[in-house]
Amino acid sequence: MAHVLMPEPDKRIIARRVEIISALEDAAGEGNVIHDPAETIAYECDALAAYHCPPLAVVLPRSTQEVAAVLKTCLRLGVPVVPRGSGTSLAGGALPTADSVVIGVSRLNQVLETDFPNRFIRVQSGMTNLSVSQSVEAEGFFYAPDPSSQLACAIAGNIAMNSGGAHCLKYGVTTNNLMGVTLVTMDGEIIEIGGPHCDPAGYDLLGVICGSEGQFGIVTEAVLRILRKPEGARPILMGFDSNEVAGACVADIIKAGVLPVAMEFMDKPAIIACENFAHAGYPTDVEALLIVEVEGSQEEIAEQLAHIRKVAERHAPKVMRESESAMQSDLIWKGRKAAFGAMGQMADYMCMDGTIPTSQLPFVLKRMQEMSKEYGLGVANVFHAGDGNLHPLILYNANKPGDQEKCEAFGSDILKLCVEVGGCLTGEHGVGIEKRDLMTVQYNEEDLEAQMRVKDVFDPHWLLNPAKVFPMAVSHSRRLRNQQGEAA
Amino acid sequence: MAKSSKILAPRNEEELAGIVAKAMRERTPLEISGAGSRRGYGNPVQSVLGVSTSAMTGITLYEPAALTIVARAGTPLDAIRDALAAEGQHLPFEPADLSALLGNKSRPTIGGTVATGISGPRRIQAGAVRDSLIGVRFVDGTGAVIKNGGRVMKNVTGYDLVKMMCGSNGTLGVLTELSFKVLPRPRMTATLSLDGLDDDKAIAALAAALGSPFDITGAAHVSGTASTFVRIEGFGESVAYRAGQLSQLLAPFGKCRINDDGKANTLLWQDIRDCTAFADKPGAVWRLSVKPSDAPRIVAGLRTGPAMDAVYDWGGGLVWLLVPEEGDCAAAMIRKAVAASGGHATLVRAGDANRASTGVFQPEPAPVAAISAALRAKYDPAGILNPGRMGFEAPAIRKAG
Predict the structure, then answer these.
(1) Digit-coded pLDDT (tens) for B6-45
(2) Among residues 175-204 of chain B, which lie with CB inside 8 Å of chain A?
(3) How far is CA B167 from CA A202, B275, B389, in A?
(4) Which end of chain B is less enclosed by CB atoms within 10 A, N or C?
């Protein structure tokens, strides 16, 4: 019933199933290959669960060399490969096809080197985002990118999607904290790019690998920048009468020269849902809520909050409340982080991820409410206001015929609006299959051609995650090459 | 083939695209430049025609509240600095001005800044040029106009060609317009300095500072004068607090002097940023990118031979090295020492003949070099854009000759 289409699986590949599985077992060892349909079903989808399809087989290698052997085998047999981290993609980045082999990095989960004087950590890419921070926590360090799924999501997936998080305004996203990778390309070549030094000698390949959605190769190791934790952090809550005023307040805080570590925005439907769910102490009689967090020593926090208060007072907030204890801070964040869970209790929802210039915030929120009425579907907004990355949650009923299609159409309209006002389709979740067919809204034919030329270099046969990122018609002739057994 | 004497300066993207498309059809190698302040950076280009973006100027969008600025490639860097300063903002990566070091008086453009991808001292805290760059427009080697990224700071829509274009020295396309994430300019700056430390101790002191929670935005050591500098920036009380804390932390390395004079700080960090220490000294200048703690050992090894002077930035991660301009400018020794650490060395300043024979950029391992060459072939199939600049062969010339 879902409307995003995947290519018809290649029957010739499926017909060779037994031969392929046996070749994979030769390459990776029998214990690392899963092919029983009762087990491969666990890999049929990621967090975009409306779309699912069990793969032909799943391989969980235990070393970079095994990844290389498996990829080489898949190339020889002409089998498409779907790389997988922890399967938390909200964009369908790890969605298999029936003729594909999933290569998961979950067994590559070791810290390889920790270097505090040089402030980096080298890890295998199957480690979860949070476990990287945890492994350096005792020495007072952390890894900055913090996607909401950080408990589960793997570094490999973070690199593939260039994941963000709530603290990007100050610390940047994955690409700004990634120093090097070990990449295995489709032909089984193991390539080291970057490392504990800064900047490349030649082209910035690391920069284009990060965010390539598993279409260039499989990252098995990564060198990540680690940072010393600030001495402390404190959020302040501010409630306003309208989205416009809250948006203007965000702009003025930035103009005043303060750079908070996070600035989260919630609109009324989100405030109410989160408060009912988490009892975070949010005011429910305001139209918009800002959570602004600053970092430093007690004195520094006080100084920054004084600047922020001064700016905010010009916008006559209905509520302005600094956290007075670690417990209160936790509660404030608990409410925000519960947003998705709270929504999930009320209805099915789809989480969008467009970015807009922050100056367009009031207009976009107003348009979204109008569209919500037109579609007859509720929408709640929780988002990173400082960087304009919106996460509209569209509420629908999965059991009501036609509702999901309506929801997806509403979502598309929101993303088109983001592009129209000067923003983009996806701020941190990636294109995957979800936004694949909208790419032509943001990019013209030549822009997309330029991007696909890079994939031609890394994966000339278009075997890695082939039906993602680019609209099917746009990538058609390239994907056909594999079936015809020729490369560019 | 001689260096191009004729330089075209198209007024807009369409004109530029026309010039490149024609050059591709006629296999005419082009030397791409902005104001020309870094024409001496990279391998000398063998071209018959120059193309400059210097007539494509102007800030096309600046939204201080969105921390975003967009400008045409030929816009002078100082025009962008001034516009941002008027709103209390700046380019976070602290763009260098290498004019003095390279012996010219040209005003660098924003396009040249991105094409060469050289970041200043704040790179350790705020990231490199590529980390601030959020959107590009460029003309590829076929004359096609391509855009990537945009004007918002969080954007993962499709591949990140923005990063790939940054530092590609005009060999993948001619940049026409650039978008940046900008940041508030710090209200206050203070520098802590330590005297008399040898390189080893200085880099250890910088590592201690960088490993502290006090948000260091500059960490340099000038070997010749044995002066070590740590910079902190922000609001007044915060700077004072952190200066105090850092003095205590660095006490084992000596007594810190604290200077919070605005002008003095600006000049000091400009000198480090542009490596002005070597501007008036004869010799070849190298820029080494290494694991910070390896830096003193690498420099010590070279001191027994060619190294005359060293300036460390980025806590040791960047070393500016002055060597006699003789033979291969010590390339073999330097590249071997640096490669053992996993880093790379760039010959920033030397005569044309020496840069051509030595090669400015560190050769990449074979599989990486193969990818780079293939990308170049995809974006500039005729090899007409800055042929030879980054060390790739120039098929256009080879065919012609």
Answers:
(1) 899 999 999 999 999 999 999 999 999 999 999 899 999 9
(2) 183-185, 187, 204
(3) 8, 19, 12
(4) C
Coil, strand, or helix at residue B323?
strand
Whether B235 and A430 lie within 8 Å, measured CB to CB: no
Instruction: Tell me the residue type at B318.
Output: L
What is the residue whose two structure tokens read 């629908």? A396
* A278, A200 contact by CB (below 8 A): no
Nearest C-alpha neighbor of B159 from the set A2, A208, A182: A208
Q: Largest Cα–Cα distance of chain A, in whole Å?
A: 71
A325, amino acid identity: S
HEC per residue, chain A? CCCCCCCCCCHHHHHCHHHHHHHHHHHHCHHHEECCHHHHHHHCCCCCCCCCCCCCEEECCCCHHHHHHHHHHHHHHCCCEEEECCCCCCCCCCCCCCCCEEEECCCCCCEEEEECCCCEEEEECCCEHHHHHHHHHCCCEECCCCCCCCCCCEHHHHHHHCCCCCCHHHHCCHHHHEEEEEEECCCCCEEEEECCCCCCCCCCHHHHHCCCCCCCCEEEEEEEECEECCCCEEEEEEEECCHHHHHHHHHHHHHCCCCCCEEEEEEHHHHHHHHHHHCCCCCCCCCEEEEEEEECCHHHHHHHHHHHHHHHHCCCCCEEEECCCHHHHHHHHHHHHCHHHHHHHHCEEEECCCECCHHHHHHHHHHHHHHHHHHCCCEEEEEECCCCECCEEEEECCCCCCHHHHHHHHHHHHHHHHHHCCCECCCCCCCCCCCHHHHHHHCCHHHHHHHHHHHHHHCCCCCECCCCCCCHHHHHHHHHHHHCCCCC
* Residue B109: DSSP 8-state: B
Residues 6 or more apart in contact with residue B3 via CB below 8 angstroms: B31, B44, B45, B46, B47
Strand B89-90 and strand B30-33: pairing?
unpaired
Q: What is the mean pLDDT of residues A235-245?
A: 94
Q: Kindly give the pairing relationship between strand A81-84 and strand A101-104.
A: parallel
Terminal CA-CA length for chain B: 9
Among residues A291, A261, A318, A293, the alpha carbon closest in space to that of A383 is found at A291
SS3 readout for A212-270: CCCCCCEEEEEEEECEECCCCEEEEEEEECCHHHHHHHHHHHHHCCCCCCEEEEEEHHH
Helix axes B199-210, B236-249, angle to 10 degrees: 130
Distance CA(B67)–CA(B77), nearest Å, equals 17
Q: Provide mean pLDDT across the span A351-377.
A: 93
Chain A residues near residue B64 by CB distance under 8 angstroms: 254-255
Q: Rounded to 5 degrees, what are φ and ψ at A244?
A: -60, -45
A254–B184 C-beta distance less than 8 A: yes
Minimal CA–CA distance to B198: which of B167, B169, B223?
B223
Contact A172 B131 (CB under 8 A): yes
What secondary structure does DSSP assign to B247-302, as a single string? HHHTGGG-PPEEE--HHHHHHHHHHHHHTGGGTTS-SEEEEEE--GGGHHHHHHHH
Buried b / exposed e along B86-120 (16+ C-beta atoms within 10 A): ebebbbbbbbbbbbbbbeeebbbbbbbbbbbbbbb
> Of B123, B241, B367, which has the smallest distance from its Cβ to A191's Cβ?
B367
What residues are paired with A192 via a beta bridge? A182
Q: Name the pLDDT band for B4 (thresholds 50, 70, 90).
A: low
Per-residue model confidence (pLDDT) at position B304: 80
The separation between CA A244 and the C-alpha centre of its own chain, rounded to angstroms, equals: 28
pLDDT at A325 over 60: yes
The band of B3, judged by pLDDT with boundaries at 50, 70 and 90, is low
N- to C-terminal Cα separation, chain A: 36
